Amino acid sequence: MAYSRYSILFFLAILISASNAQNGLILPIRKDAKTSQFYTTVELGSNRAAITPIIDLGAQFSWFQCDNYVSSTYSPIPCRTRKCDIVGGIGCISCDGPLRPGCSNDTCPASAFNPFQDVLVSEFFGEDTLYAKNQQPVPEYIFSCMQSRFMEGLASGANGLVGLARTEISLHKQVANKFNLPNRFSVCLPSSGLGKLSIGGPSSSTISTISKSLKATPLIVNPVSTAPAYAVGDPSDEYFIDVKSIRVDGETLSVKNSYFSIDKDGVGGTKISTIQNFTALHNSIYKPLARAFTKAAADMKIKSVAAVEPFRACFSSDSISRTPAGPSVPTIDLVLPGNDLYWRIHGANSMVEVNQRTTCLAFVDGGSNPRTSVVIGAHQLEENFLEFDLVSSQLKFSSSLLVQNQSCSRL
Predict the structure, then answer these.
(1) Which residues belong to the signal peptide in this entry (predicted)?
(2) Taking the mean position of all CA atoms in its chain, how far away is CA 223?
């Protein structure tokens, strides 16, 4: 049987599309120099509107600025439908203005939250096609609009937020459902250059490069929601791990175990955040950490200097030598359940240069009554490979890739 050249090309196009879908979705990650926020780039709708959303591990869904958004493929999600039940919408919402994306009648309501402005806005759920460069489009992608006046706090040029929490309408879950992929994703936040957000699992080349350094620990569920709006009985959608203690230069801090556990009210524990710039610790953890680190640094002939807010423990940069993994300072270990299992934080992640002469311990005091005792911030995640496997409920992590002469931009 003879095949035309066009038939063969069409068949190849189908194979390429299937291969792209099978491999999931890979998005670039960049760091904004001014705010230290991490963002990606996608396109949305029939006119392929450029979207630059901030990456938020804790956000339940994505929201984008829709003030001037026009798309013939956009559809609002009607209230009192199965899809509205899936997204968690309660009741109906309507709009008095001209009907458009983000303004429709009898629509499933969305509680869109800007974590930088700390504002919760009543918005509309809708869906449209999401595009990533040279990859399979994601049809009927569910998101919420957000008005431009509620964009305060986002990095310059950012016009949305992409949610990666443990929900049915997070980016990774929607992609996994549509392309029949396992519900897992990985992030590698770059200190410079390009990082990577991979949905459906990292590439085989990435795994082969760093497989020997990967460790795994269970992802645990906080039984009480930490979202800005939730119903009684809802568990948290954010990512918690079971840190048992913290070591500085091999010595365990003297801290009550209760601060590291989650109580019946959902208070305490350790979660991972891409929105918090620096790891925030309960005051009763932060103080002994700062004291122990300063003492261990002094033993290394590192000179203390005046503090620079928001940091409390600062040092003369001239007294700190350099290594491939950043400043040569005492190591900090987050001790996890298991046989000698820990997440080691090296100098590039534990320190921050606040000016030419001063380098500070990049942890902040979270106060005496925080909802979560330890919030691992984005600075501590830079150049660390993290895979969130929701199938096995595990976090796989590498610690600093710089130790291996690798980086997120080279994976």
Answers:
(1) 1-21
(2) 20
- Nearest CA-CA partner of 308 in 346, 359, 365, 366: 359
Q: Are residues 251 and 164 in the same domain?
A: no
Range from 5-9, 87-91, 201-205 that averages highest in pLDDT: 87-91
Q: Are residues 154 and 279 in the same domain?
A: no
114 sits in the region (left: phi over 0; alpha: psi -120 to 50; else beta) called beta
State pLDDT tens for residues 349-391. 999 999 999 999 999 999 999 999 999 999 999 999 999 999 9
The reply to whether 238 and 373 lie within a common domain is yes
Q: pTM of whole model > 0.85?
A: yes
Domain-embedded: residue 207 = no
pLDDT, tens only, 77-110:
999 999 999 999 989 999 988 889 999 999 999 9
Q: Which amino acid is at 307?
A: A
Q: What is the tally of structural domains in the chain? A: 2
Residue 85: domain span: 24-181
Q: Show which of 140, 162, 181 is a domain's final residue.
A: 181
Instruction: With respect to residue 60, please indicate whether it lies within any of the assigned structural domains.
Output: yes
Question: Under a CB-based contact definition with an 8 Å cutoff, are residues 210 and 385 in contact?
Answer: yes
One-letter-per-residue 3-state SS of 156-219: CCCCEEEECCCCCCCHHHHHHHHHCCCCEEEEECCCCCCEEEEECCCCHHHHHHHHHHCEEEEE
Residue 243: give its domain's CATH number.
2.40.70.10
Query: Hey, how many other C-beta atoms are within 10 angstroms of the C-beta on 143?
Result: 32
Local structure of residue 95 (DSSP, 8 states)? -
